[in-house]
Automatic annotation (TrEMBL):
Subunit structure, as described in the record: Homodimer. Homotetramer. Homohexamer. The hexameric form exhibits both enzyme activities, whereas the dimeric form only catalyzes the phosphorylation of N-acyl-D-mannosamine.
Gene Ontology molecular function, alphabetical: ATP binding; hydrolase activity, hydrolyzing O-glycosyl compounds; metal ion binding; N-acylmannosamine kinase activity; UDP-N-acetylglucosamine 2-epimerase activity
Gene3D superfamilies registered for this protein in UniProt: 3.30.420.40, Glycogen Phosphorylase B (3.40.50.2000)
Protein name (Swiss-Prot/TrEMBL): Bifunctional UDP-N-acetylglucosamine 2-epimerase/N-acetylmannosamine kinase
UniProt record similarity statement: In the C-terminal section; belongs to the ROK (NagC/XylR) family. In the N-terminal section; belongs to the UDP-N-acetylglucosamine 2-epimerase family.
Gene that this polypeptide is encoded by: Gne
Active site residues of this protein: 532
Record's catalysed reaction(s): an N-acyl-D-mannosamine + ATP = an N-acyl-D-mannosamine 6-phosphate + ADP + H(+); UDP-N-acetyl-alpha-D-glucosamine + H2O = aldehydo-N-acetyl-D-mannosamine + UDP + H(+)
Subcellular localization, as worded in the UniProt entry: Cytoplasm, Cytosol
UniProt key word Hydrolase: yes
Classification via Pfam families: Epimerase_2 (PF02350), ROK (PF00480)
């Protein structure tokens, strides 16, 4: 909806004129089975919603029209789509020959349909043998083909079929960055590839909060609770039918032994399906009290069932793709999905000789809850696909071109057709303000939101969620693809679990707080959390002076003193996540008291709070103000007044600043003697006032072997937000490449 509202009217006019006299694009969508309809339906709804641009023709074939598979064409009619043509193309049989004959039958029937429809473009999904017949017919009849989900890798004959359709297709819509790179490696034209995400995610990511208990009870019984049942969906593997049937038999044995309520869906129409149904009946699955065996579940209801299941088991692509959006545990069996990108919720059982291995996997996975994964989409695929369709110029030559080798830089972060920027949501949880920003891969803060930080835990978490949701929604408007959420906060943090263990006194009621789970659940995005000092170091490593430096230290000089240590290009957290508490390095045994309870810490000398404390003492003794300074009665004395007084010749203020600089310098010397970095970066509002003092102390106190260290002031305007963004951008970049 946001996309439609913001699409330029002038751009719409240009697209229509390009294709000649307001010509509507005639789109034929052909669907073969329940699985591909779940991906095509969101696109069909989008096309139908824009009749000024498109004419939609729907062709139904394959297992949609077979009673054994639930006559699933009815759900297309229930969605209020007019079915132009129904083609019975499945040849009954239990072997590979039946699949070949089905392809042949479809090739015989399709030319007449396409001659009557005369579509400008045909949309084909996936890797089924029916889809290969569709693509072959369209290509030979000079009809442009848009292929959905090309470039992916999985097991069985599906890989070969998918890549064959890729070679026939003129345009490609892929779901992941890896799939895009595979298409480029297959010599497809980069300008005709759209990285949009999976269309089904547009529905998935808005579905979880709907009423689901009635759906669960309808399919599994009145006494079933959420996270206490299993969804099983297993298909034959056409390249090794006997082994896949044996694996299915072991799966059913394990499920019977596991003794949990289970919804079993019948297998698809591939060769070997009849034998799998015989195995189900031999074991009495249809009459077993713990099992519900069904031919078909409507996609909207299936979403709710897997979203709240204790586990999903089988070899369906749905398990490794869509289910990750909910963090539901998945056990992927056999080789059918080998090569697919998966989230951490998927446990693979490649082979099994007995039921024990599968049973053990069930014991490991059942009832867990994993972070939500958005590897395959962010919920905005359909607007991108519609925009892509509108950009197609029917006057361009139909003959497709191949690129030998790929002509585009494979590390480009831009998608030509939608000009999106891969970005992160960065959250900075400060003592006073709560800030959220959209940060691009290049470190540009695209948009920033600031609110006062609430005092209570509940209000604070509610505000974080509200601001993040607002920013994620706005990201679509500014053409940003959000890869995840990074959070920078004070105190001790367990980054592995996303938990704030102990916070600073500036942020009350913020201990043992799980930040990752509620934010990940609300946004369906991966979430990373770390200490603000560590985030500052990450910001320098990615965007600042630390870029390309193997060993360096960042010191934050602000309200408090913090920092982060990068050793051999990696951030050091320590055994109890307490590394780099640089503000609490003791430089004097009888120094001033620190907020941590100790004495003589760097923070007790050089932090903004420490300087403010000393400024107040001078002010109370009428020793702060000098000529050229003035203060209003209601004005609060701050560190800035102390610095101003020192600049105007106040010797006592200057002495305090020199002592603070010396304390900081001694701390840096200790760091040099411990970590031996090649670079020290001073960050924060006080950095420029301390840099010369720190260099002087190093020259006087440090060992000669470390005196050559570079000490610089950070040039980053907002290291906290940039560091939070780096948590996301660094991880996702490594993961993709």
């Amino acid at each position: 909806e946001v996309y439609f509202k913001n699409l330029s009217k002038q751009k719409q006019k240009e697209v229509m004129e390009k294709n000649g006299n307001n010509h509507k694009l005639r789109v034929c969508v052909a669907t073969c089975n329940r699985a591909d309809y779940s991906k095509l339906a969101p696109i069909m709804f989008g096309i139908k919603a824009e009749p000024q641009f498109f004419e939609l023709d729907v062709v139904v074939l394959g297992s949609h029209l077979i009673d054994d598979y639930g006559n699933t064409y009815r759900m297309i009619e229930q969605d209020d789509f007019d079915i132009h043509t129904r083609l019975h193309t499945i040849v009954r049989g239990e072997d590979e020959a039946a699949m070949v004959e089905s392809v042949g039958l479809a090739l015989v029937k399709l030319p007449d349909v396409l001659n009557r429809l005369k579509p400008d473009i045909m949309i084909v999904h996936g890797d089924r043998f029916d889809a290969l017949a569709l693509a072959t017919s369209a290509a030979l009849m000079n009809i442009r083909i848009l292929h959905i989900e090309g470039g992916e890798v999985s097991g069985t004959i599906d890989d070969s079929i998918r890549h064959a359709i890729t070679k026939l297709a003129h345009y490609h819509v892929c779901c992941t960055r890896s799939a895009e790179q595979h298409l480029i490696a297959m010599c497809e034209d980069h300008d005709r590839i759209l990285l949009a995400g999976c269309p089904s995610y547009d529905k998935l990511l808005s579905a979880k909060n709907k009423d689901y208990m009635s759906i669960i009870r309808m399919w599994l019984g009145e006494d079933v609770k959420t996270r206490d049942y299993i969804v099983a969906l297993q298909h034959p593997v056409t390249t090794d039918i006997k082994h896949s049937i044996k694996m299915f038999e072991l799966t059913l044995d394990a499920l019977i032994s596991f003794n949990k309520r289970t919804l079993v869906l019948f297998p698809n129409v591939d060769a070997g399906n009849k034998e799998m149904v015989r195995v189900m009946r031999k074991k009495g699955i249809e009459h077993h009290p713990n099992f519900r065996a069904v031919k078909h579940v409507p996609f909207d209801q299936f979403i709710q069932l897997v979203a709240h299941a204790g586990c999903m088991i089988g070899n369906s692509s749905c398990g490794v793709r869509e289910v990750g959006a909910f963090g539901t545990p998945v056990i992927n069996l056999g080789t059918r999905q080998t090569g697919r990108e998966t989230g951490e919720n998927v446990l693979h059982v490649r082979d099994a000789d007995t039921q024990d291995k599968i049973l053990h996997a069930l014991q490991l996975q059942f009832g867990k809850q994993y972070p939500c994964s958005k590897i395959y989409g962010d919920g905005n695929a359909v607007p991108r696909i519609l925009k892509f369709l509108k950009s197609i110029d029917l006057k361009e030559p139909l003959q497709k071109k191949f690129c030998f080798p790929p002509v585009k830089d494979n590390i480009s972060q831009d998608i030509d057709h939608i000009l999106e920027t891969q970005s992160a949501l960065a959250v900075d949880l400060g003592g006073t303000n709560l800030r959220v920003a959209i940060v691009s891969m290049k470190g540009e803060i695209v948009k920033k939101y600031t609110q006062l930080n609430p005092k209570t835990y509940e209000d604070r978490l509610e505000l974080i969620l509200k601001m993040c949701i607002e920013a994620a929604s706005e990201a679509v408007n500014v053409n940003c693809r959000i890869l995840g959420v990074g959070i920078s906060t004070g105190g001790r943090v367990n980054p592995r679990e996303g938990i704030v263990l102990h916070s600073t006194k500036l942020i009350q009621e913020w201990s043992s707080v799980d930040l990752r789970t509620p934010i990940s659940d609300a946004l369906h995005l991966p979430v990373w959390v770390d200490n603000d000092g560590n985030c500052a170091a990450l910001a320098e490593r990615k965007f600042g002076h630390g870029k390309g430096i193997e060993n360096f230290v960042t010191l934050i000089t602000g309200t408090g003193i913090g920092g982060g240590i990068v050793h051999q290009h990696e951030l050091i957290h320590g055994s109890s996540f307490c590394a780099a508490e640089l503000g609490h390095i003791v430089v004097s045994l009888d120094g001033p008291e620190c907020l941590c309870g100790s004495q003589g810490c760097i923070e007790a000398y050089a932090s903004g709070i420490a300087l403010q404390r000393e400024a107040k003492k001078l002010h109370d003794e009428d020793l702060l103000l000098v000529e050229g300074m003035s203060m209003k009665k209601e004005e609060v004395v701050s560190a800035a007044h102390l610095i101003q007084a020192a600049k105007l010749g106040n010797t006592k203020a200057d002495s305090i600043l020199r002592t603070a600089g010396t304390a900081l310098g001694l701390g840096v010397v200790n760091i040099l003697h411990t970590m031996n970095p090649s670079l020290v970066i001073l960050s924060g509002v006080l950095a420029s006032h301390y840099v010369n003092a720190v260099k002087d102390v190093i020259n006087r106190q440090a060992l000669s072997s470390v005196k050559t260290v570079d000490v610089v002031v950070s040039n980053l305007a907002d290291p906290a937000l940039l560091g939070a963004a780096s948590l996301v951008l660094d991880y996702t970049t490594r993961r993709i490449y």
